[in-house]
Design brief:
single chain, alpha/beta, seven-stranded mixed sheet, five-stranded mixed barrel, elongated
């Protein structure tokens, strides 16, 4: 047997008190023997043996007067009470122990004890123990309903405990029991039998308490009702005046009831709120529950249940507002005007959700604000970027501390009407984790067939969202879940062209920033060439955010010059931009005028617009290795291998040594090497560069191309044609080769681009080669055809 289980310890005999293991308790010690025992324990390791005496009237108990089971405890601190000999001792119970023998009675009790270890449950008893735990919790819940002033922390602690012995000790130490009954629980070492005894005591105590309550009710009925009400009302009045600035809970609840009745809610909602008011009236004004209930009622009252604005559906006026706030974006404006027209004809019942998809900075958020302005509706914005908790959308249940409504209900409450325009910003950046999927919670919000009875977890009442016009924004529609995407009508906002950026800057950004910086059109002017310099040399983006920042920087520097007294007004020319902002950040690529062997101009789409991307091929004597460099993605590498396989299969046709794949090393490189690139649309570019290098045929540098290829040499369609052709126009390209299936996309091309570039459609690679390759010295056929490419990728997608 473990010798550490036996220990000689100073002992305190307790009168009418039983201490359990894992129990923290404070009690007063007045007898000299007990005080000396406490001091002895404090002088040693602070451990003391606490055992109840059988007769509380016995002042000097001996061994026969003490129970045989007690508790070893550790003294946490002691306090000498003023003007008395009493010492208040705080202890933490450690474990049960047997009293083996009283070794000393003077000057204080010293006992030989044996610590009792909690026995482990057998495997066959575990299911029974689990059932017993559940039954005990049920009994305890019944007891808690009738027990007076049982602390809420005790109830929560009981519901969280899952150990049989620990549960029994905790309940026995915290419910109203005679100390002899508590000692019976302490005496029981077996945890299952101990909890069975606790269950029996709980059931009996619950019955007794119910009986006591019934007796008390009968007694109270005999008290004069008028006198009792008068006494309580006067008491409540005094308490309320002290705590609530003279407003009684009854008066407060009456005011709330009047407001609820004035809302004109349906019967179910009205009944629930009135019931909550009745609960609030019975609560103490300072209790946490009263605060939670009051905040809940006030939140419900703030919701615009029946408040709505009248729509202004004048299409001419709406178009003027949209044209004033935004340059270009004609298709987007047309779609919004169509939506307003349908709303007018359908008496506002048209509830289609619009999703504005486009790169950053193209005006998605500002368009939503303009729509609200045009319709005369309130506007609210909800940012969804990074939201990963479903409760952010649906709200938290009000039972939790710090709970609040979800963002949707908060947005409607902030707008103050039930038919605002709510912008759900960055819907493509919703996350999801163990807390739920917020995109799934949005399904009901954005579904016009379901959102008329949207129930927020906090409000817990159906709220009609069918008259709310939802507008969502996204940068990438591919990351939006399909069920959510299905509930929205997509409107794509393309990146701005160079001319559009110029007009936006001249008509909107420059006047805005001049006014924000305290300048006027007389004190500062930015010439057109300076704006073009900002666009070409200092920004590279799809939208105009960075451009606005650069204009703001010019305004700040001009303000400094004017305030310092150097001049009264500033005119910024293109030559002044570098003096004010420093050297250009982006240097435009220079297009080669002479044909080059193995170098072909490809076209790429990026998130900030189109780019021209050259593909270089070098052929050397070797062993047939194919090297691919330039941070190429898997799809682009596959396009390169497809191009090699096609040229190899047609080697005889193009006059190439059929054994080139064994005797030549091929190196395909796509600058810039540090920029990741991917996508299938560089297939035609790689095939053309490869044929040029293998046949030593120069490529016309005024030709650019884009298109995916197949192993049979077919040219397949691509995306991003609008941005790619704008890049070709910017670089001075004269001819662009595009897949034949992309011909309908030419309707989207800017008119200025159409007028300056010749477009050639191609169905196979032979047509591409004819358009791009120059006439060779040996009798090679001359070719004139142009191919364009469509793609989309992350950093740069070809």
């Amino acid at each position: 047997m473990n010798k550490s289980m036996f220990k000689v310890m100073p002992t305190v005999a307790l009168r009418g008190l039983v201490v359990f293991p894992d129990m923290s308790i404070s009690f007063d010690v007045g007898r000299e023997k007990s005080i000396d025992a406490v001091k002895a324990a404090m002088a040693d390791d602070r451990e003391i043996f606490l055992v109840a005496q059988k007769d509380v009237r016995e002042n000097d108990p001996c061994e026969e007067d003490l129970y045989k089971i007690g508790t070893i405890a550790k003294i946490s601190h002691i306090l000498k009470l003023p003007k008395s000999d009493v010492v208040r001792v705080s202890v933490d119970g450690i474990c049960r122990a047997n009293l083996l023998e009283v070794l000393q009675t003077e000057p204080y009790l010293i006992c030989d004890t044996k610590a009792r270890k909690e026995p482990s449950l057998k495997d066959e008893d575990k299911d029974y123990a689990l059932a017993l735990l559940r039954q005990t919790k049920d009994y305890f819940e019944d007891y808690a309903q009738v027990a007076p002033q049982l602390p809420g922390e005790v109830i929560l602690e009981v519901l969280e405990k899952n150990e049989v012995g620990e549960m029994a000790d905790f309940i026995a130490g915290n419910i109203m029991l005679e100390y002899k009954k508590r000692q019976l629980i302490l005496n029981e070492i077996n945890p299952i039998k101990r909890l069975e005894k606790v269950c029996a005591m709980l059931a009996k105590e619950s019955d007794l308490l119910r009986l006591e309550n019934e007796i008390n009710e009968r007694v109270q009925e005999n008290i004069d009702k008028g006198q009792r009400e008068y006494y309580l009302n006067e008491q409540m009045k005094v308490i309320s005046e002290e705590l609530n600035d003279g407003t009684s809970p009854k008066e407060e609840c009456n005011e709330l009831k009047e407001k609820i009745l004035a809302l004109g809610l349906n019967e179910e909602a009205e009944k629930k709120l009135l019931k909550e008011c009745a609960r609030l009236e019975k609560m103490s004004p300072v209790s946490p529950e009263a605060t939670v209930s009051r905040v809940y009622i006030e939140t419900c009252l703030e919701l615009p249940w029946n408040k709505e604005t009248n729509d202004k559906l004048n299409l001419i006026s709406a178009k003027k507002i949209l044209d004033k706030d935004h340059y270009g974006l004609e298709k987007v404006k047309e779609r919004i005007i169509e939506s307003l027209a349908v709303r007018k004809l359908s008496d506002g019942a048209y509830g289609q959700t619009l999703c504005l998809v486009g790169p950053p900075g193209v005006g998605k958020t500002s368009i939503a604000k303009s729509v609200a302005k045009a319709m005369g509706r309130s506007f609210a914005r909800v940012s969804l970027g990074g939201v990963s908790d479903e409760a952010e959308i649906r709200g938290h249940r009000k039972t939790y501390i710090g709970s609040m409504p979800g963002r949707i209900i908060n947005a409607v409450k902030g707008a103050g009407t039930k038919n605002p325009i709510v912008l759900l910003d960055e819907i493509d950046k919703l996350g999801h984790d163990y807390k739920g999927d917020p995109s799934a919670a949005l399904l009901e919000v954005l579904d016009g067939e379901q959102n008329s009875t949207f129930t927020d977890h906090y409000v817990d009442l159906p709220f009609d969202l069918s008259k709310v016009m939802f507008i969502t924004t996204a940068n990438d529609k591919s990351t939006i879940p399909a069920p959510l995407l299905d509930r929205m009508e997509l409107i794509e906002l393309p990146s701005y062209t160079r001319e559009e950026k110029f007009n936006i800057a001249k008509k909107h950004l420059v006047p805005k920033q001049i006014a924000l910086h305290g300048l006027t059109s007389k004190t500062m002017k930015i010439k057109d060439k300076a704006i073009y310099t900002l666009i070409d040399g200092y920004t590279r983006e799809a939208g105009v955010r960075k451009l606005e920042q650069k204009i703001a920087s010019l305004c700040r520097k001009s303000a400094k010059i004017i305030v310092s007294g150097e001049t009264e007004s500033v005119v910024v020319n293109d030559t002044d931009v570098e003096k004010l902002l420093g050297a250009r950040i982006f240097i435009p690529d220079v297009l080669e005028n002479e044909p080059i062997v193995g170098v072909v101009n490809g076209l790429a789409w990026t998130s900030v617009g189109g780019e021209m991307l050259q593909v270089e091929v070098a052929v050397m004597d070797g062993t047939g290795k194919v090297e691919l460099t330039g941070s190429l993605g898997d799809v682009m590498k596959e396009s390169a291998m497809a191009a090699v396989s096609y040229i190899r299969s047609k080697a005889d046709k193009y006059g190439i040594d059929p054994k080139f794949y064994k005797e030549k090393d091929i190196h395909i490189h796509v600058p810039e090497g540090a920029v990741p690139k991917d996508g299938p649309s560089a297939g035609v570019t790689m095939a053309t560069a490869l044929l040029s290098a293998l046949t030593n045929t120069p490529v016309n540098q005024k030709v650019a191309m884009t298109g995916e290829i197949s192993l049979r040499g077919r040219v397949l369609p691509i995306g991003g044609l609008r941005e790619k052709t704008m890049a070709a126009y910017r670089m001075g390209i004269e001819t662009v080769v595009i897949p034949q299936k992309n011909l309908p996309d030419l309707n989207e091309i800017d008119e200025k681009v159409k007028n300056n570039i010749k477009f050639i459609s191609a169905t196979n690679l032979d047509e591409v080669f004819e358009a791009a390759l120059e006439k060779a010295v040996e009798d090679r056929k001359s070719v004139a055809a142009v191919v364009t490419n469509k793609s989309s990728f992350d950093a740069m997608r070809i």
